[in-house]
Amino acid sequence: MSEQPSNDSVGQRCQITREDFICQRIEIQKLREGENLILGFSIGGGIDQDPGQNPFSEDKSDKGIYVTRITPGGPAEVAGLRIGDKIMQVNGWDMTMVTHDQARKKLTKKREDVVRLLITRKSLEEAVKHSKGSHPRQ
Amino acid sequence: MLSPTVMEEGDEVLQVLEVGEAVEEVKEVIISTIEEEIRRSSPLNSKTSQDDNWGETTTAVTGTSEHSLSQEDIVRITKDLEDSVGLDCRRYVTRSIAVILGLLVFFTPLAFLVLPHILWPDKQQRCETACEGLVISVAFKLLILLLAVWALFFRPARAGLPRVFVFRILLAVLVLLFVTSYWLFYSVRILHSQDPDYKDIVQYAVSLVDALLFIHYLAVVLLELRQLQPCYSVCVTRATDGETRHYNLGQLSIQRAALAVIEHYYCDFPIHNPALLSASKSRAAKHLAGLKVYNVDGPGNNASAGIAQSQSRAMIAAAARRRDTSHNELYYEEAEHERRVRKRRARLVVAVEEAFTHIKRMQEEEPKKAPGDVMDPREAAQAIFPSMARALQKYLRTTKQQHCHSMESIQQHLAFCITNKLTPKAFLEGYLTPGPTLQYGKDHWLGRRWTLISEASVTSGLKDGSVFLLKCVDFCLVVTSRKIPYVQMSEEYIDPKSHKFVLRLQSETSV
């Protein structure tokens, strides 16, 4: 798994699982509600789920973890997570080939206050293309 | 036919003019030549007088109507000839040969048993128990053989086929050889040497009867069982309107396959209705009527084939150039016809249902009505027929079926339906859809005389790709056969416990 060194910038190219994606890094601070630490979004997907019913994926055989709901005003929305984002990594753990339950566990570790997600979004690709088109650098 | 604008002789010039008038000149030429031919070939027939009006009422494609006329003449002539010589002659000959053979076969064992007693009445030993048992078995086996031969061979002949039936000839020859050899042996060894041992003679007779039973078994297998397993699939197409059916046949000779096809034809194919073909003929006539073709070289030259070819090529070229709107006419005509048929059908159904409500079956328990009121089925049919007659007649005329049903036949059918408690819908079924030829009266079974036309010999077996024609008076059936392919089937075992299912999951977890 090769990665380029990153900042919190949009339009980063990263290569995971031999495919090229435009990724974004998002850092979410967990919010404490009573006993639980919540992030404020819901996930769907996983290698044990049916990929055909995922409304957000472009390729209907994609078994990755997707963001299906965002609590308005929650930590995830504040950090910049959007509905339909595909989560590629959580704190360095790969999320492209995990079961639904494994993904949930990685996100809800009680000892961690912060989760750093690597996500990809369809609109990111288009934004990069637009910016490249207007400022041809390469 | 000389066109006034061409000057030189020997110049083959064809002028194709697009004229919209009727092509009377061309028609007359065609008519007269073929009529001459008919007159030459059938001196018996006085029907072919030159009808002046005939040219105007027939279409330019005179081929079909003339050929059907001349073919009817030929069929009539050959029928006269054959009746005088007798196709029945052959049938009687075969039947008499069969009877003689049967008597020979039946009486030979009896003769074997009886002759020693007649020839040497003094020299015979007594017949012991075993010997008597054998005599009884001979008697019963002969009885069984008699019944079996009667069941297999003495059935009414279904058809007269053009050539003899090869397997039967084979079996007859085999039986004849067999019986002859037994007689030879008997006369040489027993009669000459005057063998006194009666048991031997009885055993000899028993062996003959056993062998005859086995030959009968061979006959059953060859004549009846061998063609039961389907081997070829034949496709039967009627030449006039394209009706096609497919049948599976076993290994048969071409003439037996043709017979099977004809028997299926009578049950399966809807009746041949020449009135339905007139529409396409008139369309074809309209295509040709617009063109007038002149042969400027004069009649009687020897390039007639070339002329015909160039004529038709010229016509095709002209037709391609002309903008043809006949497809439009066809479409609207068919739509209109469909609508008319449906309307008449609706009226007919309502009329028949109403007519059927006028009568009801009288129950036995009802108090007796006056004898004038009680009717038998025929009278009841006659009573309700007038209310539906007009609607039925109009419908039949629209669908061009009126020649298939006479008034008498309709009333008979109505009486039949009333007697057997058929509903109005069941009564109408025979008129709404054209049924198989069997359904109509005997006079509609056009020509029980069929001609088999085949390039291969008719006693040779059916093969893959063999084609033959069955010609009747009005139409032709084209039969092609295909071999049923060898099927290689493999098995796959499914464990009944292997049918397991899981739910399709789509969970959403909030974190």
TrEMBL record, chain A:
Positions in coiled-coil regions: none
Residue intervals of the PDZ domain: 25-122
Region described as Disordered: spans on this chain: 49-68
Entry keyword set: Acetylation, Cell membrane, Cytoplasm, Membrane, Nucleus, Phosphoprotein, Wnt signaling pathway
GO biological process: cell-cell adhesion; convergent extension involved in axis elongation; establishment or maintenance of epithelial cell apical/basal polarity; neurotransmitter receptor transport postsynaptic membrane to endosome; neurotransmitter receptor transport, endosome to postsynaptic membrane; receptor clustering; regulation of signal transduction; Wnt signaling pathway
Membrane disposition: Peripheral membrane protein
Listed transmembrane segments: none
GO molecular function: protein kinase binding
GO cellular component: adherens junction; basolateral plasma membrane; cytoplasm; nucleus; postsynaptic density; postsynaptic membrane
Keyword Kinase tagged: no
Source superkingdom: Eukaryota
Alphabetized InterPro entries for the sequence: PDZ, PDZ_sf, Synaptic_Scaffolding_LAP-MAGUK
Cell compartments where the protein resides: Cell membrane; Cytoplasm; Nucleus
Protein name in UniProt: Tax1-binding protein 3
Organism phylogeny: Eukaryota, Metazoa, Chordata, Craniata, Vertebrata
UniProtKB/TrEMBL annotation, chain B:
Positions of the UniProt region annotated as Disordered: 41-62
Keyword presence, ATP-binding: no
Alphabetic keyword roster: Cell membrane, Membrane, Transmembrane, Transmembrane helix
Compositional bias segments (type: Polar residues): 42-62
One matching Pfam family: Strabismus
InterPro entries documented for this protein: VANGL
Annotated localization: Cell membrane
Transmembrane segments: 97-119, 134-153, 165-186, 201-223
UniProt topology in membrane: Multi-pass membrane protein
Highest rank taxon of the organism: Eukaryota
CC per GO annotation: plasma membrane
Keyword Cell membrane: yes
Family statement: Belongs to the Vang family.
Name of this protein: Vang-like protein
